[in-house]
TrEMBL record:
The chain crosses the membrane at residues 21-39, 67-86, 98-126, 146-168. Pfam families: FUSC_2. It is found in: Membrane. The keyword Iron-sulfur does not apply. It comes from Xaviernesmea oryzae. This is Integral membrane bound transporter domain-containing protein. Signal peptide: none annotated. Residues 31-155 form the Integral membrane bound transporter domain. InterPro entries: Memb_transporter_dom.
Length: 173
């Protein structure tokens, strides 16, 4: 039985929880894009994806996903930047950079599974790089996009939980 099915059978507020899940996921994607565009971030798609990825069924799960997303992204950016700086000095191509960076990230992900997003972050940093842009700047921008979306996702979840608690209080009166 899924969380949604268990909620529907166990709690009278399950329908509200379902509606709020749909609304907050959609709002997280939309608001993340708008904020990333307003901040003039070059790839708002990463903000939207992050906002949706952290949006889980339960608040505790959203908090865990957000922590993993933030720390994993930070680790992936650091790995990509370090590999990028070292490999550019050695004139290594993008494919080799990705191979090295993902291998290092995979070592970390095996040890700390919550941080597995670090493996995805490395190729994202390399493949969104443009000629003439320093790799540290690309990493910083990708990190900012992901962090923005994650913050939006968790804030909307906290807001939705507040709506549910208010609904339950009003229903008891």
């Amino acid at each position: 039985m899924s969380y949604a099915e268990a909620d529907r059978s166990a709690a009278p507020h399950a329908r509200l929880r379902d509606v709020l899940f749909v609304l907050r996921c959609s709002a997280a994607a939309t608001l993340s894009i708008l904020l990333a565009q307003a901040a003039d971030l070059p790839h708002p798609v990463w903000a939207a994806m992050s906002g949706v990825i952290v949006s889980q069924e339960r608040l505790g799960d959203t908090q865990q996903a957000t922590i993993g997303r933030f720390l994993g992204t930070l680790l992936g950016v650091v790995i990509a930047v370090l590999v990028g700086v070292g490999s550019r000095w050695a004139h290594v191509g993008t494919t080799a950079e990705v191979a090295i960076a993902v291998a290092l990230a995979a070592i970390a992900a095996r040890r700390w599974p919550l941080l597995k997003v670090c493996m995805w972050t490395c190729p994202i940093v390399f493949f969104t790089s443009t000629p003439g842009s320093p790799i540290w700047e690309v990493g910083l921008l990708r990190g900012a996009e992901v962090l923005l979306g994650g913050v939006v996702g968790i804030l909307l979840h906290v807001l939705a939980e507040g709506v549910i608690l208010t609904f339950l209080r009003l229903k008891r009166r």
